[in-house]
């Protein structure tokens, strides 16, 4: 299992994934950005990003959940919540 | 004890020649935008298709397969009498029987070959090539004609914008013969029937439906490891590949697979742009056109990766004829 990542770690990892998959500069990827409206990332690229994030953070992001993750911060929160040690 | 003899004098098989046939009628994105709510920009960015070919109403899978097969046979320099096996990979058959393969063989003047159809959907050509390779190596056939042929248009709901923009018609063929040096590597293949409802034609009265996002996720994650397994089994490093020819499903899937295979010196087939997704015909059509244009040198290794309904998948490394 992947080590528990801090908010900064997740942001950095996510920015690298987005750069690799859609070629958006890492500095553009900040927490308040909306994937579709601000970063012009479509639903297919979101699937690729989710899969890469899964490999990197060890957290599964199914298609149903993916629909609700609108901003970079949403993904950070989602990953952090699932990484918390369970009961 | 009685021993059963198999031919042990054929160390391998290779593709001797390719051929392809694309129907004359071109359907552009603008043509589709005139009838369903879509547009050229959306189709190009999501799927990568600029135009596709659609068969004439009275043009059959046998017609297209015979055209492609005839071209491959002529290019191979072999005579019809040299062919002992004809396999047609198709998942869009007009009728369940007779097989298309027997009719295609008859059309081409190939007398009394082993002939059958095979359905592994978009992975069909790779499955058929593996079957032909085995038949040649074990002495069941001196030479084989392998064809992927599809008339997807007859299973398309032309008012469903999620599928009508993708699928297309056509046929591609390969002649496979014996070789002192193996030119077809071991196949890496498999299936996942638990996801059989992801891409389906429910009955003969229904149209093709697919669960686009789930299929996209599967294709961009599960297929690259199969491609790498085929390289491993053939003993060919990805960096040595001169061409990567994934099933022409969607340009975004093709690019994702290519990125993961890391074949940095390879031409990646993008025939989907002008031919659309022709299912089991897409790999041999792309290869045939690649060879015709001279994109890849003779003898160079190419990676073939088929994947689709089943879900079924297969990959192998071959030598370009």
Short characterization:
The complex is a heterodimer of chains A (87) and B (321). Chain A is mostly helical and 87 residues long.
Please characterize this protein's 3D structure:
The complex is a heterodimer of chains A (87) and B (321). Chain A has 4 helices and no strands. Chain A has helices spanning 7-22, 43-57, 63-66, 72-83. The longest helix of chain A has 16 residues, at 7-22. The mean pLDDT of chain A is 87. Chain B is of the alpha/beta class and 321 residues long. In chain B, strands 1-7-6-4-5 form a 5-stranded mixed β-sheet, sandwiched between helices. In chain B, helix 7 (251-261) links the parallel strand 11 (243-246) and strand 12. Chain B is globular and about 65 Å long.
| Percent helix range of chain A | 40-55%
CATH architecture of chain A: Orthogonal Bundle
What does the main sheet of chain B amount to? 5 strands, mixed
**CATH fourth-tier homologous superfamily of the largest domain in chain B:** Thiolase/Chalcone synthase
Look at the structure and give the mean pLDDT of chain A: 87
Q: Tell me the count of domains of chain B.
A: 2
Number of helices of chain B: 9
Q: What coarse outline of chain A follows from CA principal-axis ratios? A: globular
Per CATH, the architecture of the largest domain in chain B is 3-Layer(aba) Sandwich
Strand content of chain B: 15-25%
Number of E-state strands of chain B: 14
CATH third-tier fold name of the largest domain in chain B: Peroxisomal Thiolase, Chain A, domain 1
> How many separate structural domains of chain A?
1
Fold-level CATH name of chain A: Non-ribosomal Peptide Synthetase Peptidyl Carrier Protein, Chain A
């Amino acid at each position: 299992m992947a080590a528990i990542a801090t908010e900064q770690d997740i942001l950095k990892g996510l920015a690298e994934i987005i750069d690799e998959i859609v070629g958006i500069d890492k500095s553009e990827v900040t927490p308040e950005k909306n994937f579709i409206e601000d970063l012009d990332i479509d639903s297919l690229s979101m699937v690729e990003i989710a899969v890469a994030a899964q490999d990197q953070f060890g957290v599964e992001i199914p298609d149903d959940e993916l629909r609700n993750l609108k901003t970079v911060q949403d993904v950070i929160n989602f990953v952090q919540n699932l990484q918390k040690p369970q009961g | 004890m009685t021993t059963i003899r198999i031919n042990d004098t054929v160390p391998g098989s290779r593709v001797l020649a390719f051929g392809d046939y694309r129907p004359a009628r071109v359907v552009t994105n603008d043509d589709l935008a005139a009838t369903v709510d879509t547009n050229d920009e959306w189709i190009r960015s999501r799927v990568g298709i600029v135009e596709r070919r659609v068969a004439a109403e009275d043009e059959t899978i046998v017609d297209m397969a015979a055209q492609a097969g005839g071209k491959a046979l002529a290019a191979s320099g072999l005579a019809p009498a040299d062919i002992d096996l004809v396999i047609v990979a198709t998942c869009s058959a007009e009728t369940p029987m007779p097989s298309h393969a027997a009719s295609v063989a008859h059309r081409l003047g190939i007398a009394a070959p082993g002939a059958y159809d095979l359905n592994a959907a978009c992975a069909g050509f790779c499955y058929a090539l593996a079957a032909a390779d085995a038949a040649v190596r074990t002495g069941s056939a001196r030479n084989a004609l392998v064809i992927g042929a599809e008339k997807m248009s007859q299973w398309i709901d032309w008012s469903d914008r999620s599928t009508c923009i993708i699928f297309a018609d056509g046929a591609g063929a390969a002649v496979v013969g014996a070789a002192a040096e193996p030119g077809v590597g071991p196949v890496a293949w498999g299936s996942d029937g638990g996801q059989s409802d992801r891409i389906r034609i429910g009955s003969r009265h229904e149209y093709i439906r697919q669960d686009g996002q789930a299929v996209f996720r599967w294709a961009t994650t599960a297929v690259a490891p199969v491609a790498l397994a085929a390289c491993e089994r053939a003993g060919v490093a990805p960096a040595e590949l001169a061409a990567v020819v994934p099933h022409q499903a969607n340009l975004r899937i093709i690019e994702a697979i290519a990125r993961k295979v890391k074949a940095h010196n390879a031409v990646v087939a993008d025939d989907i742009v002008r031919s659309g997704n022709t299912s089991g015909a897409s790999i041999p059509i792309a290869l045939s056109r690649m060879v015709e244009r001279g994109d890849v040198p003779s003898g160079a290794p190419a990676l073939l990766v088929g994947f689709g309904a089943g879900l079924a998948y297969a990959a192998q490394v071959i030598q370009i004829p």
